[in-house]
Structure formats: structure tokens, C-alpha cells
Proliferation-associated protein 1
Amino acid sequence: MATSVCSIGLLLIKKWMTIFLKKMKFMQSTLWSALVKVKQKF
């Protein structure tokens, strides 16, 4: 019982971490493109 709960918890953490990392990469790319646009203006 305890092992199954632990494995489910680990799976959820892995899933959440991958989603979080993907969002972070997306945010970084959008921020980077915005910075490049600002630099091109000035």
C-alpha cells in the first residue's frame, strides 16, 4: 500500500516537474524574444 502511494506521488511530481520545466522554457523564450525586440527598437 505504502509503496504504491509513493510511486503515484513520484509519478505526479515527475509529471508536474516536466510541465513546470516546459512552462519555464516557454517563458524564457518569450522573455528573450521580447528583450530582442526592445533592443532592436533602441
Remarks:
- DSSP finds one helix and no strands in the chain.
